[in-house]
Amino acid sequence: MEIKTLMIENRILYVRLPCNPIFPIGVVYLADHVHKQFPGIEQRIFDLGTVPPLDYASALDDCIDEFKPTLLVFSWRDIQIYAPVGGRGGNPLQNAFELYYAKNPLIKLRGALGGLRIFIAYYAELWRNQGLIKRGLKRAQKYHDNARAVVGGGAVSVFYEQLGKSLPPGTIISVGEGETLLEKLLSGDEFQDERCYVVGETQPRNRLIHEQPTPLEKTACNYDYIEGIWPEFNYYLQEQDFYIGVQTKRGCPHNCCYCVYTVVEGKQVRINPADEVVAEMRQLYDRGIRNFWFTDAQFIPARKFIDDAIELLQKIVDSGMTDIHWAAYIRADNLTPQLCELMAKTGMNYFEIGITSGSQELVRKMRMGYNLRTVLQNCRDLKAAGFNDLVSVNYSFNVIDERLETIRQTIAYHRELERIFGVDKVEPAIFFIGLQPHTHLEEYAFKEGILKPGYDPMSLMPWTAKKLLWNPEPLGSFFGEVCLQAWRQNPNDFGREVMKILEEKLGCADLEAALSAPIDTKEKQLAGIS
């Protein structure tokens, strides 16, 4: 690997802003890449996810005082407005549905108060993280006048246009991957051809997020080095059931109408060499890790990548790491009997499939590219191969042309998955789509006048939030009532209770109807919203 020359002496402090205790693989990979390009550079990782909330500011001050960085790289992972389960201050979906759909005034009031708590917590987090960035930069500039900040991460990649209005002038806002941006910045080269812009100096290019990332050859992360620059590293090794992230590829080639992954990571799928992935896993394995999460947007994004997945899993078998478990998001339409055998053999003990609907008609309209019949057959192959663990199936009701018959089809499809894996092994995760910037769904909302260009997608104001939580009439109220009933009856098993109530109310279609989709010669349309 080519070793780059530094134009100035740099000391880089990576600050992972507070979030749930999820292994900060993005920061780790950035630091590892910079070290390989500039082995003489001093780096430190500081993870606020391991710090008590009352100590955020003082801990950041102490770290900066000790390390005296010239460059602060902030990683901002989450700006999660809607969630189907408990999040900041409560369950956002439940609060919203109680406020919008409950008939009992007391329940409606409870939803309003719960929503207010989430509203306050949400904006408090935004202000806190912006404050930490400003505080850290100002502190670093006490030691180096020219210290500057780079801000990136999942949240920034989606809301990069909005965040630029509230960050310090001179801050570099990075969209998507940051390795080549940091390379150019550290070398003193022009870097603004990367997916980034500088607050107060430049404006983000039109459709910046849709530009393709710079290709990058990924090698195994050097965890001996990472352990030396990250004092909190062992925090993530203490619990034996903790899943540690490993990336096997980047990019997603699909066009799902509501998903922002394909623009953040780019449509070009870039495979990490299997030997490098296994070498990285081996380093973690030797430190006691037995549970791995493959952090790809999709572990097998398309059939053309099946051979790559087979190669990787076979090399895991050959490595002798026989007592591991792993999990991933998987497009189950891309499985083969050989791949199923290897998945079971290598210890896959959980996977998620986001089919969104059990109606082939709706899957087609959402541009998801799934063949639901193929998914079922591949699930049967996986079961036959010996897989006997948990499957999480994501359903997003009421997105595009949903009607009572397509709901019945989804129920039929879900019951067939239960027959394949077992009722206790199939967990329905019930989502209602939060409209994201830069998606086909947002374009449709502009076209139909549902949203106006220039709206604030980070707003949690009620008049914006109800439009962004995609649950259109005429079925919106129906789904609201069903979900409220499920929370009353069985809040600890919400997904299964929703499916049970829907079947009691509507019945179950014939499975063949779910798997068949008549060709619609009319122009494809997305559902409206009230």
UniProtKB/TrEMBL annotation:
Keywords: Iron, Iron-sulfur, Metal-binding, S-adenosyl-L-methionine. InterPro entries: BchE-like (IPR051198), Elp3/MiaA/NifB-like_rSAM (IPR006638), rSAM (IPR007197), rSAM_horseshoe (IPR023404), rSAM_sf (IPR058240), Slr0320-like (IPR054650). Residues 236-472 form the Radical SAM core domain. Its cofactor is [4Fe-4S] cluster. The keyword S-adenosyl-L-methionine applies. The keyword Iron-sulfur applies. It holds the Pfam family Radical_SAM. PROSITE patterns: RADICAL_SAM. This is Radical SAM protein. It comes from Halotia branconii CENA392.
